[in-house]
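LysE family translocator
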Amino acid sequence: MLSSSTAGLMASSCAIVLLLPGPTNTLLAAAGVRQGLRRSAHLTAAELTGYLVSISLWGICFTHASHSLNWLPKLLRVASGVYLAWLAIRMWFAANSIATSTTSVIGSRTLFSATVLNPKAMLFAGSIFPPAAFASLTTWLEAMAVFTALLIPIGLTWISIGAASGNGRLPHVRPALVQRCASVVVAAFSISLIWSLAR
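C-alpha cells:
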C-alpha cells in the first residue's frame, strides 16, 4: 500500500510532469483547436491507456533489471534529471507556440501511439512511481488511481487551451511567456530530482 507521504510526493511530481508541454499535450491542444473540447474529450482515454501500457512495461523492465543492477535506479534518476534540464533549456530558447495542425482530425490511435512513445513514461516509471507499484498489484492499482485522477483533468485542460485559442477566447495569452514559465518549473523539478540523490 502507498503511504500518504509517498502518494503525496508521487501526485505532485506526476502533476508537474503531466502539465509540461510535450508530444501528447501538443496533440491534445491541436485537437482542441481543430475539433473543440466536446469532440476531443474522449482523447484523454487514449492518453491514459497509452501511459498505462508504457509505464507498466518500463516499470517491470526497471524492477527486474534493478535486482541484478542495483545502481540502475540511481542512474535513471540522474538521467531523468539531466533529460529534464535539457528539456527546460530547449523550452526556454524555443518558446514556440502550441502547434495548431489543421491538416487532419486527431484520433485516438494517433494519441495512443504518441503517448506510448512519450519519454515522460520512462520518467514516471523510473523516477516518480514508487518501485513497489511494479511489485504488487494492489500498490500498482493505487498508484494508477492517483495517476488517473491527475491525468484526466490535466488532459482536458490542454484540450481546453487549444479550443480557447482556436475560437479566439485567449487573445492576450502569450505562448512564449507560458512556455518560459513552464521551463522554469521543469528546471526546478530537475534540480530537485538530482538534489534528492546528493543528500
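The chain has one domain: 4-73+97-172.
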